[in-house]
Write a structure and sequence with these properties.
The structure is a single chain. The strands form five sheets. The protein has a five-stranded parallel sheet with strand order 3-6-9-1-10. It is of the alpha/beta class. 42% of the residues lie in helices and 17% in strands. The longest helix is centred in the C-terminal third of the chain and has 17 residues. The protein contains 14 helices and 13 strands. The two termini are 23 Å apart. The protein folds into two domains: 195 residues, Rossmann fold, CATH 3.40.50.300; 99 residues, Helicase, Ruva Protein, domain 3 (Orthogonal Bundle), CATH 1.10.8.
Amino acid sequence: MPDPAIRRLRDNITSVYMGNASAVDRVIACLLAGGHILIEDVPGVGKTVLASALAKSIQCSFVRIQCTPDLLPSDVIGVTVFDRDAASFVFRKGPIFHSIVVADEINRTTPRTQSALLEAMAEGTVSADGATYALPSPFMVVATQNPYEFEGTYFLPENQLDRFLMRISLGYPSPDDEARIISLQPARTTLATLMPVMSADEVITLQKRVNEVRLDTSLVDYIIALAAATRNHDDLQVGVSPRGALALAGIARATAVLSGRDHCIPEDIVANVIPVCAHRVVPRSYLHAGDTATARRIMQQVLETVRSPA
């Protein structure tokens, strides 16, 4: 059985976000694995609601950054100013110094500002004016974006995408869920009063438990075989890197904890290959900038050709 704290967290999020249940589990798994998540879909399907519900369900500092074309790196990281009282320069921390950062419509801001998140997401630190500042623990970036073909968006560079542990889409809700959304309007009612159900210490404890989950040698070999298949695939210019293989192992462990297990099974890997790996590979041809369907199709082919351990 899943941990009671995880059940409370899931129930709290689904009281507001009434849609793709598997997306909720993936967001939670990403939190437990200590990674960052990118939620991509068309406007109006609940991306911001899901991200905000996760942030408000945990008793830690969080902030929502509305990304716009005029957003500057200093607006995210912070800025050094002169303090007259102290007669010295001091660093004023920006919104990145919160435990959970919701970066809404991240691809509407410029690549320069997008890259300001890079060190924070990769290293858990921020460098400014020759000094390095540690970010809080836990630390997670939940970014949302609209498809690239929408007007006024900027392509996220590959090294930025690689910092996201998972990239998911939500899809449209079922008719029953949509009826509940229309009736309850949770984004206007429940979300505003949503209370935390998990402390930051509980998150850290669960993250430590994820690191202790047993990953059998046969499953490690399976992950390596999947990565190798992408590197040798005729339709891919760039396959899954060692960082990607490590990410797949981490999310498999987190999925096991979500299911109440202390060991991984092949399904923990299979279920996560596409959301973890599809944004890390580069097909030889794209239909358009930001095309994700081609990468997902190729990753599905890889899944079907690499034999899973019994």
